[in-house]
Amino acid sequence: MKYFLEREYSRITRIINSPAIAILLVFAIFVDLFAQTTSSSLIKPEQRMLAKSIKRIYKTVGSLPLYLYIFNPQNKIGGCPAIIFFHGGGWQTGGPEQFAPQSAYLVSRGMVAITVEYRIQNVHGTTPQEALLDAKSAIRWVRLHATELGIDANRIVAAGGSAGGHLAAALATITEHNEESDDLSVSCRPDALILFNPAINLVALEEYAQRYKTKDYIRLFSRVDVASISPYHHIHNHLPPTLILHGAEDKSIPLSTVQEYAQAVTRLGNHCELIIYNECGHAFFNFSRDNYHNPYYRETLKEVDYFLTSLGFLKQK
What we know:
eight-stranded mixed β-sheet
């Protein structure tokens, strides 16, 4: 940088023959470079990854477009398995960039990966019920456009973390709550589920919020029939194979709720794997944890790879 500024000062002085003005111009160049560098450094790696995806509208609510972000493998041929990610954030915050790193990895393994924008409370004033309507619409849109997207419509995985885990699980368990504009002849049932610390029992979470006086969640849950959108309360014996990854020290979603769900699912003859990570709290799997040096991001991604390989969705490494 020092050499660059000295060079610019010398060049400008020769052109305009005024040292004072040259100093001002070089200073302006420095300020502009600093601003560009600072602006670039504020962009998170996940957002840079998301910018490389293909952006498509899957639904319009009134005048509001909702987008999918599609990551395609190199040299893609038709009939690829696909994974659709729903971000966390308590149905209030968050964005589709959360799972861009996982998407980038799974694309390298030959899958089409998609992250979903859905309505959230802090932006759209909505509840978990509207988020579920959007999740169902997203899956149906992907399945309806499977040939165009080069996707195998019978190998679609739904995945998500926390509130996004709730949405993914609800796609497989809850038949009610569909958008009026959806084509209900197109199934929104995923062919497999990957759930990262999922909000799986909303009745228990509502009680948890009341006990600890979590005002945001009390207000959010008071606007919906919680049991009607709670995956735990709609378990049946035709659920897709499921992988759940959960932290033992999760203070937002108690481990017990996930254990009870896994036990109830398997009792009905469904396949469900629960992997518990000791000493880990909520959102322990995120790429951005520990200043982007999170070992559990890699550990959970490894388990995701094993699970999808066991189903035949990925080729054996």
